Amino acid sequence: MKRLGQTLLICGFLCAQIVHLQKKVINDMQICGGNGVVQLVIVEPCSNEPCMFQRPGQIKVHIEAGFDRPSETAKLSASAMVKSRNLTLPGVPNNLCRLTSCPLNGRGDIRNLSFTVPIKSFYPPGTYELSFVASGDDGMEICRRLNVTIITDQ
């Protein structure tokens, strides 16, 4: 019985490590505008940057961020550069007030947002630059770019 308990404990530890490895704090983001603050971005599943996403599928995104100026509204747009064309990513929530309460108070008001993003089966495999722009009443607050890789379904 003691051996079974030790085996279960080891299995539990290894499973927790595997799950932990599939979450990645994203550090390699370029600022492309805005005076808002992004404190943390965690993507799951992702183990290395750039993240590799299998299609079809979905990813979970957790963000801790705040606007520089107060705003009654908060919108998010996401796009990808594909063959020198900027294409909107479907399925990314665009009304941030549905993910957190509005109004946003501006500087110092850090919000935690979590959402899922579908990886559509028609996305072509390759590495792409994604742009995420959060806007408030007075325009762009946050813009970040990062690279991701789409791999084919197996």
Structure description:
β6 (about 75-80) and β7 (about 85-90) form a beta hairpin. This protein is mainly β and about 150 residues long. The chain has one domain (about 25-150): Immunoglobulin-like, CATH 2.60.40.770. It has one helix at about 1-20; strands at about 25, 30-35, 35-45, 50-55, 55-65, 75-80, 85-90, 110-120, 125-135, 140-150. It contains one helix and ten strands, in the order αββββββββββ. The termini are far apart. The longest helix has 20 residues, at about 1-20. Strands 2, 4, 6, 7, 9 and 10 form a six-stranded mixed beta sheet that branches. This is MD-2-related lipid-recognition domain-containing protein. Pfam families: E1_DerP2_DerF2. Keywords: Signal. InterPro entries: Ig_E-set, ML_dom.
Indicate how many domains the architecture comprises.
Answer: 1
Number of helices: 1
What is the name of the CATH topology?
Answer: Immunoglobulin-like
Q: List the helices and strands in order.
A: HEEEEEEEEEE
Strand content: over 45%
Give the N-to-C terminal Cα separation.
Answer: 40 Å
Q: What is the helical fraction, as a range of percent?
A: 10-25%
What is the CATH C level class, in words? Mainly Beta
Class inferred from helices and paired strands: mainly beta
**CATH architecture field:** Sandwich
Q: For the report, how would you describe the main beta sheet? A: 6 strands, mixed
Mean pLDDT figure = 87
Outline: globular
The total strand number stands at 10
Radius of gyration: 18 Å
| Unreliable segments of 5+ consecutive residues | 4-21
